Amino acid sequence: MAYDPDNVFAKILRGEIPCNKVYEDAHTLAFHDINPQTPTHILVVPKGAYVSWTDFSETASDAEIAALVRAVATVAKEAGVAEQGYRVLSNVGVNANQEVPHLHIHVFAGRKLGRMVPKD
């Protein structure tokens, strides 16, 4: 999957599409998902043009990597879900159903989430 500079997250980062921002630093932006799957559903995205975890881990700076990891934990804590628990998910590629070609981390919380993947 190639990076598309016109993907929805790139447009949000450029300010072309509004978002309900919950956190921002020099390297990341976090905002509420417009179609939440759980009572708390926040997306955390790097500001750089990275397609996936693979792309990010191979090409991002140490500062960007640290900022993204810390942003996820900060967002969970500030949303008040760190104590009860939350799930972090990033879909990578076609088989994982990645829909937007910009690395994004879902933070799900606010209810018991159950199994991550159903048993076959």
Automatic annotation (TrEMBL):
CDD domains: PKCI_related (cd01276). Keywords: Hydrolase. Residues 8-120 form the HIT domain. The active site is at 104 (tele-amp-histidine intermediate). InterPro entries: Histidine_triad_CS, Histidine_triad_HIT, HIT-like, HIT-like_sf. A motif (Histidine triad motif) lies at residues 102-106. It comes from the Bacteria. PROSITE patterns: HIT_1, HIT_2. GO terms for molecular function: hydrolase activity. The keyword Hydrolase applies. This is Diadenosine tetraphosphate (Ap4A) hydrolase. It comes from Rhodospira trueperi.
